Description:
Layout: E1 2-8, E2 36-42, H1 48-64, E3 67-68, E4 74-75, E5 89-92, H2 101-107, E6 113-116, E7 122-123, E8 126-127, E9 135-140, E10 147-148, H3 165-177
Parallel strand pairs: 5-9, 6-9
Antiparallel strand pairs: 1-2, 1-10, 3-4, 7-8
Amino acid sequence: MSAVVGYAGGRTPSKDGRVCYYYAPGSTIYESLGHAEVVKVNLDASNDDIAKSQFKKFADTYFSEFKKTPQGVMQRQDPQDAGPGYRNVVGLPGGINSPLFSVLKEANVNNMVLVEGKGNEYTKSGPTEDDVLNTVWVVDSEQLPFYQAEVYHQFHNGLGKAFPKQYTRDLKEKMKEVGTVAETGCPEYFFLNS
Length: 194
């Protein structure tokens, strides 16, 4: 299993194919294209049982990261980030019709609302899929593709937590070397590297 950071869940195509963070030209900014910040997790596709086992570990970890508010609903650990670009999105091949959807439902120990997502876009009344507490949008990853984020977004420190250089520098360099992470054509801010 491996993972990279990026953007997904939007329906509006970028005119030049780039999907970038906020430091880029407006027509390429991920949130304005309807995307959310996501992590793409590659499962071992050689065996369905192994893939399901790996996805179960992911789903268990995913749901363990939410915290209950005083109002009794679940929210991410980073409530300062809000809006459609930060909504909870899980992409599965086939969406809610994926064999992995039952694994996701079983791991949902918080009883969060799992909603079939069709992809966010902005209409006159606002976003079609917004950042709603206690809600996870489940989208079809075959219909709504993943776009890798800029290299500087990969393998960086956590929320208020510094990770070792073996992760923030060495692993990032190895992933670049083998082609798992590549430059996207979006602005890179190397001063932000860990």
